[in-house]
């Protein structure tokens, strides 16, 4: 069983109409029967077409719903004001592209809504996770399915956590990881379901695509899947910690220049696969490859990656996030229950500018307002304003301060344009 990335060029669609179905049909027509898409992003749009990158799973006997499955919402629930915050992994986002450095943004946005729904990349800061009580920690593919309308989320008081650790030759790393789990049990009451130790066949390798986006290749998932299959019903969420093979020169460059985070892409591929097949929230933290790397002194680094310098196992952030991560509900007969959060309960999506993936495309189809943050620069090359948004469904802002202003306007039921000047005259139409 193997996870890897595949690049594909999809022809342009007139006026960017019906993009979701256009991408779905083209992708499914150009994959072999053995290739299952688990992740999708449009990295660049130009005269040639849509340059897309797909996370692929092959060699698997497991089946999962298509990532392109879509169920249109037929109403909007305005009893609460709920916001989805996305900062994609591995795209060198100025804010949120390194080690939990979008934490302050998540706290700011959470204060302006009833519930903030976000994914691990935003708040994971190695051994630090400062997300608020009204923040839901949701694995990336699960968040996509929520926006696509095919699942609901059920709040929980606590999850039973299955922890899976890479079998490391240096026992000190295993001891530190186990101590991290036990510390979470002792200090804030984590419900640990036990610890599984992986065999040596499991391999994760960090790579980059031609766009510069971080991705990876993963081998030997069979035993991980077999272990999870054999223990179904005993756990509610899965935390994994394992080594990711990385060229030492890339690591040096990352710590000294704060370049594209090299680990997140491979981690996202792994968690997408597990969450999609087993329908549980999943998160991964990288385990150091050696004591030499662990003890290296990289000096005073960019504040955005400083959390990695003061952490040992990088495990605490995912344990805290998964502790109360919402349960995934897939039954189409109950996902619209008033006790669940579904796509009809989502009032706005906030994304970095230029980012086109399934959540953005789903918001377009679901007529959910989208706020694009221009100041959160990244390596993606798409013009979101060219998509066929409905009136009042797309707002491009300079920074997250301005994004909060738009959110407050939407929450208050006022047109954001009315708090700016000059104020234009209301148009008059003849009938």
Short description:
The protein has helices spanning 19-29, 103-110, 120-123, 140-148, 171-188, 222-230, 248-257, 264-278, 291-294, 306-309, 316-323, 358-366, 400-412; strands at residues 2-10, 36-46, 49-58, 82-85, 115-118, 135-137, 152-154, 160-165, 191-197, 203-208, 214-219, 237-243, 281-287, 327-329, 348-352, 356-357, 370-373, 394-397. It is an alpha/beta fold and 431 residues long. It has two domains: 2-58, no CATH class; 61-431, no CATH class.
Fold topology:
Layout: E1 2-10, H1 19-29, E2 36-46, E3 49-58, E4 82-85, H2 103-110, E5 115-118, H3 120-123, E6 135-137, H4 140-148, E7 152-154, E8 160-165, H5 171-188, E9 191-197, E10 203-208, E11 214-219, H6 222-230, E12 237-243, H7 248-257, H8 264-278, E13 281-287, H9 291-294, H10 306-309, H11 316-323, E14 327-329, E15 348-352, E16 356-357, H12 358-366, E17 370-373, E18 394-397, H13 400-412
Helix pairs in contact: 4-12
Task: List descriptors.
single chain; 431 residues; alpha/beta; six-stranded antiparallel β-sheet; six-stranded parallel β-sheet; 13 helices; 18 strands; 28% helix; globular
